[in-house]
Design brief:
By secondary structure, this protein is mostly helical. The chain is built from five helices and no strands.
């Protein structure tokens, strides 16, 4: 018996893959924390501050993102979110200090939320 893999199923698959990628993106920075700390000369407190800069916008936009999706459409919002995540991830590779690391993590929290 042949099953039909329609548009809704494809969209669900793409969304599930997106969430998997974003989960990996969220947690992989802890693996590189010792290298980031040494490279930027950060203390444990500064590194914790940079890591928590992700959590606050992420939590806020988990709530606010649904409203944005209703208002502007889910495709537009997901596209913009993906763009922000991409730019923030690239920016994380170019950080030169605590301030830029906090800004990149904050932007990542906005996009992923």
């Amino acid at each position: 018996m042949r099953t039909k893999f329609g548009g809704s199923s494809r969209m669900l698959l793409v969304l599930c893959l997106l969430y998997l990628i974003l989960y990996i993106d969220r947690v992989n920075i802890s693996t590189s924390a010792p290298l980031i700390k040494a490279e930027l000369g950060l203390s444990n407190g500064q590194l914790g501050l940079a890591f928590s800069a992700f959590a606050y916008p992420y939590a806020f936009f988990q709530l606010f993102g649904g409203w944005l999706g209703d208002r502007f459409g889910p495709r537009r919002v997901l596209f913009l979110s993906g763009l922000v995540v991409m730019l923030a991830t690239v920016a994380t590779g170019f950080v030169g200090g605590l301030g830029s690391l906090i800004a990149a993590r904050f932007a990542l929290g906005l996009g992923e939320g």
